[in-house]
Amino acid sequence: MNRAGRTGLTLVATLAAGAAGYWAGQRAIVRPPIPWLHAIPWLESPASGPADPKRAPSGAVIYYRDPDGQPVYSAEPRKTAAGREFIAVHASEDISFDDKPKGQAEAPAPTTVEPKMVLYYRNPMGLPDTSPVPKKDSMGMDYIPVYAGEDEDGSTVKIAPGKLQRTGVRTETVSDRVIIRQVRVPGTVQPDERNISVVTVPADSYVGKVENVTTGDRVRKGQPLLQLRSPDIAAAAIQFQINPDSEGARRRLANYAVPPEMIDEIVRTHQVPLAFTWYAPRDGVVLIRNATEGMKMAAGDVLFRIADLSSVWVLADVPEYALANVEPGQSATIRVRSLPGRTFRGRVALIYPQVNRETRTTKVRIAIPNPDGLLHPDMYADVEIAAGGGDPVLAVPDSAVIDTGTHQVVILDKGDGRFEPRKVQIGAQGGGYTEIRDGIAAGDRVVVAANFLIDAESNLKSALSGMGSPETKP
Question: CA-CA 20 to 30 A from 116: which of 39, 188, 378, 420?
Answer without folding.
Answer: 420
